[in-house]
Structures are given as C-alpha cells and as structure tokens.
Amino acid sequence: MRGYYLRYLQVLVRFFPIAIAFLRDRRRFLLFGPSRHVSADVHRDRADRLTETMLELGPAFIKVGQVLSTRPDIVPPTYVEAFATLQDEVPEDAGGDPLTVVESALGDDLDLDTLEPVAGGSLAFVYTVDYDGERIALKVQRPGLAAIIERDLRVIRGFVPLLVTFADERQRYSIENVADDFEEIILEELDFEREAEIMTTIADNFADDERIVVPTVYHELCSDRVVAMEHVDGEKITDDDALADVGIEPTEMATLIARTYLKMGLVDGVFHADPHPGNLAVTDDGRLAIYDYGMSQRLTQQEQDDITSLYRTLVRRDIDGLLNTLIALDVLDRSVDRVAVRRVLELVIENLEGKSEISWREIITELFATLHEFPFRIPPNVMLLVRVGTVGEGVCRTLDPEFDFIAATRSFLVEQGVIESEIEALLEDVRTDLRASAPVLARAPARFDTVFGQLERGELVVRTDPIEPTNGGVAGAGDAIIAGALIVATAVLTFHEQPLEVASAVLAVAFLGRYVRR
C-alpha cells in the first residue's frame, strides 16, 4: 500500500499545476470570482504539457492519453488532437529489461547471439532473432510491468471521485464509466496470448488479399509474455520516399488503408485498433504491412451490425436511424428523451451540411459534443472503432491532404451492399412512401363516396371558430376579395387571344375603388 500512496502523491503533484489552472478558468480565485476567458493558444499549451506529463508517468498513463484521444465526451477537441499524438515510444529500460524475459522463456529454443533490438513501446519491446533459418520478430512484455500497471490503474481509479467533484454535471456520467473502460482496454493489451490469436484471425481474413501483410505467428514460441511472429521489413508509411520508391501513389495507398480497416471492423468483426504511422509500413514490393495487434478487438455479430448501422446512418444523414443506433449501442440510455435528442441530432446534421469539407473526426466530435446535455457513454468497442476512424483518417490525410474518408466509406458500404447508391436510395425512399401510402389510397374511394353522399344530402357541416372576436368584420372585405380575384383573372386572360383582360382589369379597378371608398 505504501507504493500506492507514494505513486498517488507523485501523480497528484505532476497534475496539480494544470488542475489549478483549469479551476481558475471557472473561478478566477478558486473559491470565488468570475470565470475567465482562455485563448486557444493557452489550451494548446496545456494540452502539450499534459501530453508530456503522461509520457513521463509511464505506460498506463500513455494508454490513458490514447484512450482519451477518442473521448470528446470528456475532453475538448484541442486536447483530443494533442493526445492523439501519443505513441508507444518510451526508453527500453522502462519497467525492467525485456531481455531477461527472452532468456527465461526462449533461451533453449533460440540462438540469443543473433538477437537484435528493434523498437520499444509502452508495454513491450521488439527484437529480431534467427529461428529455423529465418529471421523472426519477438514482441516481449516488459518484466514486472503488469504489477506497475495494476497499481497505476488503482491510482487512476482513486482520482475518479476527485474528478467527478470538480467536473461539470454533464461530464460526470462519462467520467464514472471511463475508468472501467481504461482497465478493460489496457488489461486486454497485456494479454499476449489473446494478441497472437487475433493476429492469426486477421491474417486468415486477409489471406486472399495480396496487398495486405499480417505477420505469421509462430504459436510454438508464444506465451503470456512473448509473441513470436514473422519479421516483415518495411518503410514507415508516412516516409516521403517510401511510396515513390515502390511506384505507388499516395491516394492509392490511402484508399487501401481506409478500405482495409473498414473491412476489419464492418465485415470481419475483428480489427486492429491502433493504425498510427508507427504501426503501418510499405514493403519493398508495395504491400501494406500492419504491426502491433495489442490494441485490437473482437465484435459480436450484434455489435458488428450496430456499428455498421452507425457508419451507414452517419454517411446517409439518417437522423432517426442514427438515434436508434446510438440507443442500440448503449451510447444513449433507452429512457432518454428521444424528441430532445432528435432535435440535437438535426442540428448536428445541419451544421455538418453547411461545411464544404467534412472529415470523420469532425463528424464524431460534432456528434458527441452536442450530446453533452444528455447522459451518455462510449462503450469500449465503439471507442476503439472511433479511434480507428479518426487515427486512420489522419494517416490517410497525411498521405493525401485531399483524401475524402467519408466518400471512401460510402463507396465501401455501397460495394458491400450495406447502403444503396444515390439512385437506389431515392427509389427505396419512394417505395417506402408508396408502401406506407397504399392502405390510405386503397380506402380513399370509399371515403370520397361517403363525403360526396353527405354533401348531396346536406349533412356535411363545417364549423369554424374565430381566433379572435370580431366586431362585424372589415367593411368592404367582399369588394377586396373580388378585386383580388379579378386581378388574378386579368393576369391569366392576358395570354388569351381575345382582349378579355381589359374588361377584367376595369372591373378589378372598380371593385378596388369601391373598397377604398368604404
């Protein structure tokens, strides 16, 4: 427990100055005084300081920052953008020497003299080594890391009541749920056996696609702290010369990345959830290589259908469908005021349609920002898919600044039969309207016959009540009505061969004059 309290105090001291700055934004003198306006530059500076603090505090807090980059329900857009830059780049000695894990787990199976370090991440370190005449890669969990992360997760959970006390009422619901989400995502990423299984599944799903490379897993060498896989050479996807060297256009690669991740999430239901530039590479033969499957997820069929519906309704601007999908995904409670939420969603769509260019990040940010007045949360699976969309779009825009992620998504959904083309969608809307109108049209002749019968028998009476009491009406109202009708008739008769409009105009002037006199 002593270690827990010392860590709690250390984290508190590191975040205390920034916390005081935020509190002074609400009350200049903390306990009293007016709120103060803070410029965008100040917020960007704070976001950068928070990012640096998370890097210094270690793996658990790096993951917290990465997760917060997908939580616009908790942090403002400026901070979302800053946290999105957090990648798994920490010193090799953080959390202990991974080489000791390799020696204890695989010392008898591998020639450790051929072992070479490649890269370090927040949870693991990567080596290459010779095995059966081939060069393979080892992702090795840092020793003692699980205990450190469990302690830090307890520290983070200990801060939740404090954050709730000072948070806005509309943010409390999200904050109370987010600690569970952090824990679920981070502990799953520590499960290396799960990662090896997901890698194998994704590799099988892309077995027929020669453009995608998922490293082959050597299951006989894997354990709860080691993932052994094929070593795939490649250049970082955002390297200026990488694509040019293999003769691939940036737009072509951006489209391939977008479609690959859409297939994972919406078709296969098993997806890699961390597509930042460090995990994407282009091979010597121009293929897309995907590394590091620690942050990944499996979806149930129902979750897959609901998330597909989320993409479809957002792309089609289907407000009612979007509302139903958000409830189905447990983003919104089933008891939420549907009328009020619908009005908010209509505003979101109107705001987005007023922009000449729309990005996936803007759609998600706008959507969740406007839902702040309602209790809502983003379940972990939805949160990871949001991260895939926003981070993946960022990579695509880096390759091609003009890349339209929404258009690529629409095209993919049309090809998969998830949504119709524009003409098909219009025809489907017409068919839907006709199906809804058919019963009414079928009953119309009988109703018309009944009404006409009542008219013939003098049984049809129309009663009207004046909105305001009148004192005998306006004098000459009849003359004004007749004059107006004659003016309209004059306009129509102008196109007649006979000069009938002259008589109509004279009568119109006569009745108008009579009205003026009265």
Mean pLDDT score: 81
| Sequence of secondary-structure elements | HHHHHEEEHHHEEEHHEEEEHHHHHHHHH
Helix proportion range: 55-70%
Number of strands: 10
Note the gap between the termini: 97 Å
* Contiguous uncertain segments of 5+ residues: none
Give the helix/strand class.
Answer: alpha+beta
Percent of residues in beta strands?
5-15%
Radius of gyration: 33 Å
Largest sheet: 4 strands, antiparallel
Physical arrangement of strands within the biggest beta sheet: 1-2-3-5
Count of DSSP-assigned helices: 19
Describe the global form. Answer: elongated
Task: Based on the model shown, name its key terms.
8% strand, alpha+beta, 518 residues, single chain, Phosphorylase Kinase, domain 1, elongated, four-stranded antiparallel sheet, four-stranded mixed sheet
Outline the secondary-structure elements.
Layout: H1 2-26, H2 40-57, H3 59-68, H4 77-83, H5 99-106, E1 116-120, E2 124-131, E3 134-141, H6 145-166, H7 169-189, H8 192-205, E4 212-213, E5 226-230, E6 235-236, H9 242-246, H10 250-268, E7 270-272, E8 280-282, E9 288-290, E10 296-298, H11 301-316, H12 319-328, H13 338-353, H14 360-370, H15 380-399, H16 405-415, H17 422-457, H18 477-493, H19 500-517
Parallel strand pairs: 4-9
Antiparallel strand pairs: 1-2, 2-3, 3-5, 6-8, 7-10, 8-9
Question: How does this model look, in words?
Answer:
The model has no long low-confidence stretch (mean pLDDT 81). The chain has 3 domains: 1-91, no CATH class; 95-146 and 171-232, Phosphorylase Kinase, domain 1; 233-419, no CATH class. Helix content is 59%, strand content 8%. The strands form 3 sheets. It has a 4-stranded antiparallel sheet with strand order 1-2-3-5. Strands 4-9-8-6 form a 4-stranded mixed sheet, with helices on one face. It has a two-stranded antiparallel ribbon with strand order 7-10. It has 19 helices and 10 strands. It has 518 residues and is α+β, with helices and mostly antiparallel strands.
